[in-house]
Design goal:
Radius of gyration: 13 Å
Shape: globular
CATH topology: hypothetical protein tt1805
CATH superfamily: Protein of unknown function (DUF1491)
Helix content: 25-40%
Largest sheet: 5 strands, mixed
CATH class: Alpha Beta
Number of helices: 2
Length: 109
């Protein structure tokens, strides 16, 4: 059984807030099955966007980099992705240390 996108997003935000990492919903996607994109803003003009993908070898989900570099370029990539998939969520994480916690247990579900 898969978690709904809405449930996963709220659990993710709660976990980051417990670690004192500011997190914001930039675009609210489809509550049930919207894709989730996570933008990590390191507050130095750089950013990275992660998206969930399936590992073809193992069949497991994993987070992969969709775009990284100057924040303006990353934002343009996010806008393009949202134009293809208006049901996608965009979550922005702001952390100078580059913490996003996507590699933590339970967040790949």
């Amino acid at each position: 059984m898969r978690l709904t996108a809405d449930f996963w997003v709220h659990a993710y935000i709660a976990r980051l807030r417990l670690a004192d990492i500011p997190t914001f919903v930039v675009a609210h996607g489809d509550d049930t099955a919207g894709a989730v994109l996570v933008k990590l803003n390191t507050l130095d003009g750089k950013a990275t966007v992660f998206q969930r993908s399936f590992d073809l070898m193992s069949g497991e989900r994993k987070w992969v980099v969709l775009s990284e570099g100057d924040e303006a370029e990353v934002d343009a990539a996010l806008a393009r992705q949202r134009s293809f998939d208006p049901d996608a969520w965009v979550i922005e994480v702001e952390d100078r240390q580059g913490r996003h916690m996507l590699d933590e247990p339970g967040l790949s579900d």
